[in-house]
Amino acid sequence: MKNPMKKLLRGRDWVIAFPYLWLSFFFLVPFAIVFKISFAELQIARPPYSSLFEYGEEILSIKLNFGNYLFLLTDDLYTNAYISSLKIAFISTFYCLLIGFPMAYGIARSSQAVRNLLLMLIVLPSWTSFLIRIYAWIGILKNNGLINNFLMSLGLITEPLALLNTNTAVYIGTVYAYMPFMILPLFTNLVKHDDALLEAASDLGARPWKSFVSITLPLSLPGIMAGSMLVFIPVVGEFVIPELLGGSETLMIGKVLWQEFFNNRDWPVASAVAIVMLIMLAFPLAIFHHYQSREVL
Amino acid sequence: MKPHMSLSIMFFLAFGYAFLYIPIAILMFYSFNISKLVTVWGGFSFKWYGELLQDQGIIDAAWSSLKIAFLTACGALILGTVAGFVMVRFRRFRGKTLFSSMITAPLVMPEVITGLSLLLLFVSMDQMLGWPEGRGTLTIWIAHVTFASSFVAIIVSSRLRDMDISIEEAAMDLGAPPLKVFFVITLPIISPALVSGWLLAFTLSLDDLVIASFVSGPGSTTLPMKVFSSVRLGISPKINAIATIIVIVVSIGVVFSTWIMLQMEKKRKLEIESMMPSNA
């Protein structure tokens, strides 16, 4: 009896080890390498950074370059980009919640048959290309685009409005692309609410608005938090939307990182930018993990 | 929640769906425009679809994207199913918190961070181990499997959680070894989740621009990279044509797979009912 038990345990360990090792090696270890290279110096070589450890004449010397981080602190561009990314992500999350909550509520309130169709229609756009959905807005927002052509043909404006390459365009793009991620966790939460609570409140004389604020809203907090983090965290590091819809006024750290890496080929500074972004996102990530593991895992 | 909707909620739903679908509809509409000016209607034509078929660069990129997406979906399905199973069925083991964080974090991790970190890993491995030599399809595949398997794990684990565990226990009691139970009982029951997991991984891989841009090498250009470089130069009806094809193919895929899953569900319910002693 002892032997098969042992064998089972060993089998269990293997089953755990496979995804554990894969994810550790390809998700966790890379962050350690980014951290290491953020202390390297830019070099004209392949790969374009210095090594931190030198071993010669029985001496191991470690050279840590704090210059990349000091550079981020002293150059206003980076500080401004971090602050502006947080601001854009925060406002986008707020708009997603503003539109997404009533929609999720409506879907949860519809009949079973309609509900599945409505949910599929929410998910469907996010299965098609993200890039193409952002591209669609260029044609709508540009100077001789649909909105401007329409308004000018009505005679409401004589000069085209500057819509594309502004922060407004970035907000439209983020809300458009990320709204499904707000609606889905909200729906999963709202659909589980017990109507008896609302009925009891109304029997006791509570107004609909009052019972919404004191019953529905507190109960849906886990869904609100999970959805908000699903929008907020990726938008902080967004690259495609500011690149295609944003203008010179749009400053976002994901785009800065991209340019450091691809245009300046400064891998150490790009690494430092990534590490600071990760530190900023550590708390939102922890919130997300807390609510996500309660809801789904 | 009971079905009941007020007028203002219906208005919000209509507004929301219009917001989601009108831009896609406009995009598809103008792919049939004969004029080169994307936003001025000149007449109906399939001209841009014809030009698309002539563009060898786009066809090559599309082909390599489809190959990577197919292999990613298969890899992520295996890794994600095992990960989801471990999350739900193994209540406690050392490092479980870390394990579950490694599954949830990739869902939201900004792509520029994931892309940069994986590239630096591949470069370091190449330096130290000489593998993977250079970057290309293989490195894109590894990167895509890693982030797509998180999504598969979430889908699979929520399905496993809803599933009736007593069927598995009954099989175990009758002496079936764990591996057999997994393949004969568990996998068929969670198969709808496996189908949607595979499809989601496929579309995630097909869609990814940022991570692929970091970890690809010369000579391995994917479709989103190709589309992105031409979008940067300005809008062109050819991109509208690609977009239309993608939207139609994905919609058919999603509708078809939803239908198959509903059929599978119905069949399974009937089978279970016919086995119930009260019905005999």
What does this structure look like?
- The complex is a heterodimer of chains A (about 300) and B (about 280).
- Chain A has about 300 residues and is mostly helical.
- Chain A has a single domain, classed as MetI-like fold, CATH 1.10.3720.10.
- Chain A has helices spanning about 1-35, 65-75, 75-110, 110-125, 130-140, 145-155, 165-190, 195-205, 210-220, 220-235, 240-245, 255-265, 265-295; strands at about 55, 60.
- Chain A has a two-stranded antiparallel ribbon with strand order 1-2.
- In chain A, strand 1 (about 55) and strand 2 (about 60) form a beta hairpin.
- The mean pLDDT of chain A is about 90.
- Chain B starts with 6 loop residues before the first helix and ends in a 5-residue tail after the last helix.
- In chain B, helix 3 (about 55-90) crosses helix 9.
- Chain B has one domain (about 60-275): MetI-like (MetI-like fold, Orthogonal Bundle), CATH 1.10.3720.10.
- The longest helix of chain B is centred in the last third of the chain and has 39 residues, at about 235-275.
- Chain B is about 75% helix and about 0% strand.
- Chain B has helices at about 5-30, 45-55, 55-90, 95-110, 110-130, 135-160, 165-175, 180-190, 190-205, 210-215, 225-230, 235-275.
- Chain B has about 280 residues and is mostly helical.
- At the A-B interface, helix 1, helix 3, helix 4, helix 5 and helix 7 of A face helix 1, helix 3, helix 4, helix 5 and helix 6 of B.
User: Regarding CATH, which class of chain B?
Assistant: Mainly Alpha
Q: What's the architecture of chain A in CATH terms?
A: Orthogonal Bundle
Radius of gyration of chain A: 25 Å
CATH topology of chain B: MetI-like fold
In which order are the strands of the major sheet of chain A placed? 1-2
The proportion of residues forming helix of chain A, as a percent range, comes to over 70%
The portion of residues forming beta strands of chain A comes to under 5%
Q: Give the overall shape of chain A.
A: globular
Q: Which structural category do the helix and sheet elements of chain B fall into?
A: mainly alpha
Number of strands of chain A: 2
Uncertain residue ranges of chain A: none
CATH topology name of chain A, in short, is MetI-like fold
Q: Helix coverage percent of residues of chain B?
A: over 70%
Order of helices and strands of chain A: HEEHHHHHHHHHHHH
Mean pLDDT of chain A: 88
Number of domains of chain B: 1
Low-confidence stretches of chain B are none
The two chains with the largest interface, and their residue counts, are: A-B, 95 and 93 residues
The helix/strand series of chain B, from N terminus to C terminus, equals HHHHHHHHHHHH
Structural category of chain A: mainly alpha
Just give the CATH class of chain A: Mainly Alpha
